[in-house]
Amino acid sequence: MAKRSSSKFWPRLVLATCLAAMIAPDFVTQALAQDAPAKQAFGSKQLPVLARSPQSIGFYAKGCLSGGVALPIDGPNWQVMRLSRNRNWGHPRTIGLLEKLSRDAAKDGWPGLLVGDISQPRGGPMLTGHASHQVGLDADIWLTPMPKKRFTDAERESVSAVSMLKKDSLYVDPQKWTPARTALIKHAASYPEVERIFVHPGIKKQLCDTVTGDRSWLGKVRPYWGHFYHFHVRLHCQPGSPDCKPQPKVAAGDGCDKSLAWWFTDEPWKPAKPSKEPPKKPRPVMVSDLPKACAAVLNGPSPDSIADVIYGAN
Fold first, then answer.
1. GO biological process annotations for this chain's record (predicted)?
2. What is the pLDDT of residue 273?
């Protein structure tokens, strides 16, 4: 067997070792990110990932957002609430629609929008709260109108939204509900980009019982648990997002039928039967459980400053 020349072998070994040292940290970082709990991984990101074009990736409740932009915390007809959550991010079409809704509603006399959670900078699962809001196409809007004053940062954390329901009831309090709130939801539902709107069943019933004339928009308004102090706007998957998974279309009609009546039976509100066995701690959703592209979104570069990714700033 021929003897290997040490003069050629050692330089190659040193070179290979150096290359491995340079590659390994990045490889390890990506591997760890893919195995990390998704809530912590995405919740820790303060800025979006830079992207040539925005993309919603995956499903509303299992995905992420590339190329997201921020809704400015103050606008002529809106204020963003709960700033500490850093959830005023979304697909540019979502942010644009919120600004449009604020303008259109103002023409009808609505004082302005108080905007709740939209999405995290890179979407993904959240540390607290929502199962959805992961792909930048969901937004919560309070049913409390914006006051004339500008809230301080502290007030944006502490001011409470107002429930539209009677105390200990599934029904709307007529002292709180106004035609202006109906008009606000109608405006939101009228936009073709909007796929559906979630409200409490009591609010849906209020709309069913009082809306006259054109009722075609009511079909987009869907009853769901919670949602008694805000309504939840959801957009369709937008062009340019081939990996966005759509939700089944809403059923035909205005939704003021047996499907609504079910919410006023005992069934939706029954507590779950206690299990004989102690409950197992649920396995956390990992980054690797999300669409594969979400690992790249998580590890991608950030802009130099938030000023670079505020909607309408550039």
1. proteolysis
2. 81
